[in-house]
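Form P-L/3: holo structure prediction, ligand alpha-D-galactopyranose.
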Amino acid sequence: MKPWPFLVFSLGLRPTDCYDNGAPHSRKPPLGWSSWVGLGRQWPGPEAQAPEFDFCDEESVKLSVDAFHEVGLFDAGYRHFHLDDCWADHERNASGFLQADRQHFPKGMKPIVDYAHSKGLTFGLYTCAGTYTCVGHRPGSKGHFREDAAVFAEWGVDVVKMDWCFTDGMQPEPTYTAFSEALNATGRPIHFNMCEWGRASPWTWGPRVAQSWRATGDHVPLWQDTKKVIAQRSQIPAAYAGRPFAWNDMDMLETGNYRQAAHANGKTGNMTSVEYRTEVSMWAILASPMIVTTPLLNCSKTDQIAGNFTSGSCRPSITPLQKELLLNKEVIAVNQVDTPAGRLLKDAGSWMAYSRDLPDGSVAVAFYNPSDSTADASLDLSALGWASGTMARVRDLWAQKELPQTRDRFPSTGFVEVQAHGTLLYRFSKVSELIV
Ligand code: GLA
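OUTPUT (holo model):
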């Protein structure tokens, strides 16, 4: 492998103890797309037929890069393009290096990475710390950390996700530290995303070795699961909740996935639009990476089932619900800042308020109602640390609409109604403080 001709400027830890090695789009939570349930074939096949998900090949990946732009993700600020457990050949090459699936990527991975880069995207690949990858049973990186890091750097990869299957007897912290060192030894700035599902409290040691780490198990598009991920994530102490280059990853956004998506972990998405809105709101305010996994291509049924993705039979497409929920720039702006991640502000039992300070002094507030009935919510602005008498502007971020100004309390009288499983998202800005 060729050594990289440049050095990474800040591999050492900074006083803030966060991990900036120069990898792109890491200061703020990564915003992007993953192939995980976005490129399956044999769906929507007959009910009884298990979908083959985690499929990818040269054609489908290039078309998805194009579609990333055409469906509006790029314009809304998304930049990361990740291939999950789908790309590696089942055998290493004769020299022991990982290689792209020889049948699906006959020209190898480098031209694919170059193509994504030529379209302004940051390119990510998946590997696993253990003997095999989780679902694809492809070669894991165990025993090959140096070679695998070198291959990723040689191809120009910007992000590596490392999973935790088949790791009997291994410990997360030393293992991920070793791979992080191997990545940095290449001289290429690579964003490291650790995926041990939050088991060894990665938020306590992760900021020394990675820019993001899974804080929870796999997220599937079922309401009970989304609710569980939000609850587990909320348990992380505020000091570890997330800051620049150190983000707690709640796993991928399944927004708007029904039968058009390969079934994540065997589950078909069935969440309502209200529940999917909660998903996006809470991922945004809790400063999770927002990596969408959903098909960006609508292909003819025959070609879809055969896994024959061609520009002739596939057109770029996401659903109107996905456009509404994933492309709202004011909601994305709550996520795409480098202030500390949001925190639980008020627990009213049936509903909760979360807040995130924004760089301009305004505060994003989410009213989240995980209960099964409508909740009446309100907030004393003193909870934001604002002096008594403060007049605030209020913006409804989903509606992208200014609401009447209010003093000391929101709403000024009565309550806002939060639907069961729903979330309202606002931005509060100080207009004036009463001078007494
Ligand atoms: C694990 C990870 C998922 C996905 C699959 C791929 O389950 O947690 O995010 O990467 O492996 O096999």
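COMMENT: Confidence is low (pLDDT under 50) at residues 1-16.
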